[in-house]
């Protein structure tokens, strides 16, 4: 039975460009609300989502002066249990969401001091962090190094396996008759409305493998192409997404039977000031990550891999006895303030550019933020663009959360110029 049949009249034809965790979650949210959806991606799940550790960690990922982002991460973490329950039912596969608590440990006295300061800031922001002490930490995790100086627990920081999540989302989408997925790259946004050349009316897609192109018309286009978003032509002129790649190396290792479970918490640590984490999976593997490199080398860095193994071993010496099964490197879509680019763009008269919602720049938090991003994008699609000066209207909100800090045009020139109309052409 199809539970999510589109309701005629109310449904908007949606086109989602990009099938990482954010685009797939958004496509599924739109589809389950009854909207016909086309999803385009040449390699769904193959971007940053392929590398991600899947920590859902608003507390231990808290950074000073990122209060707006913190609120968004908390909203999304709270949405996770319902999101994955519905997804497992719809897709028929387990998205591998686990309530593994997170232990945060420090190696030397400077690490202990830094983590104590962080815990004070976390508590000042109402976040739950429990002091543990190293003896209790080793009682809970016997394979931790005896040399640690401090330990805390963030009980509400959990995890999901992003590859299982992608598989589940793809299965859920494949089960819906009003969803079409196209293995193609969006090269240009369409502007075919003669009455409003700024309106986005779909996109031109190209499939390199088949050497074919297709124009897909849509009422609303969601640009969720991660780092690829700024390469799509036809964005509102003057829009500066200011995305930058922040490369990350990450390792997957198999734990021999005699050492299982290596750890039962996600273990995050500071090792002489360097962060490292170990995320245990139920299949007996462990994920160790991750470097943050702003060089231009897209492949794994030998030095980065060495540092990850050395620092993880300083926290859990038995890491030396694991089988290294995978070294992966991908780039996170970073923004100047580390917050996503999420929402509609404003045009010269203060109204929203119609037909376009942007969802990119999720940097270190895209997996965590996917349920909230999906809901925000679907709400924006259903509400349509604001037609008047937004200053005269109530702000866009998700519950009590103000979405203004995430506007995708916040790094752009104050006034966006009209987009160039797309020349008329028949479907290729
Ligand atoms: C090493 C590492 C560890 C991480 N760990 C975590 C973690 O523990 N927790 C967490 O929350 N986040 C984590 N992240 C961050 C997270 O992976 C990203 O924020 C998230 O994957 C972003 O999702 P996305 O869908 O926006 O982008 P992506 O996953 O990059 O997907 C973008 C998609 O768009 C497609 N695309 C690109 N251009 C076009 C185009 N023109 N047309 C159509 N499709 C296009 C690509 O093929 C790709 O599939 C980690 C990232 C890295 C690199």
What does this structure look like?
Residues 1-9 and 424-428 have low confidence and may be disordered. It is built from 8 helices and 22 strands. A hairpin with a 2-residue loop joins strand 15 (266-271) and strand 16. It folds into 2 domains: 12-97 and 158-243 and 335-428, FAD/NAD(P)-binding domain, CATH 3.50.50; 102-155 and 245-333, D-Amino Acid Oxidase, Chain A, domain 2 (2-Layer Sandwich). The chain has helices spanning 21-32, 48-51, 67-91, 109-124, 134-140, 162-174, 302-315, 366-383, and strands at 14-17, 37-40, 55-56, 97-98, 102-106, 130-131, 150-154, 158-160, 179-182, 185-189, 202-207, 212-217, 220-223, 244-254, 266-271, 274-280, 285-289, 323-334, 341-343, 356-360, 397-398, 401-402. The strands form 5 sheets. Strands 6-7-5-15-16-17-14-18 form an 8-stranded mixed sheet. Strands 9-2-1-13-20-19 form a 6-stranded mixed sheet, with helices on one face. By secondary structure, the protein is an alpha+beta fold. Bound molecules: flavin-adenine dinucleotide (FAD). Flavin-adenine dinucleotide binds next to helix 1, helix 2, strand 10, strand 14 and strand 18.
What distinguishing features does this structure have?
D-Amino Acid Oxidase, Chain A, domain 2, FAD/NAD(P)-binding domain, 428 residues, alpha+beta, disordered C terminus, binds flavin-adenine dinucleotide, 8-stranded mixed β-sheet, 25% strand, disordered N terminus, 6-stranded mixed β-sheet, 8 helices
- Mean pLDDT reading: 92
Q: Helical residue percent?
A: 25-40%
| CATH class (first level) name of the largest domain | Alpha Beta
Number of strands: 22
| CATH topology title of the largest domain | FAD/NAD(P)-binding domain
Q: pLDDT below 50 for ≥5 consecutive residues: which ranges? A: 1-9, 424-428
Q: Which strand-content bin applies to the residues? A: 15-25%
Say which CATH homologous superfamily of the largest domain is assigned: FAD/NAD(P)-binding domain
* Structural domains: how many: 2
Our Rg estimate from Cα atoms comes to 22 Å
Give the ordered list of helices and strands.
Answer: EHEHEHEEHEHEEHEEEEEEEEEHEEEHEE
Straight-line N-to-C gap: 35 Å
**Second-tier CATH architecture of the largest domain:** 3-Layer(bba) Sandwich
Tell me the overall shape. Answer: globular
Largest sheet composition: 8 strands, mixed
Structural class by SSE content: alpha+beta
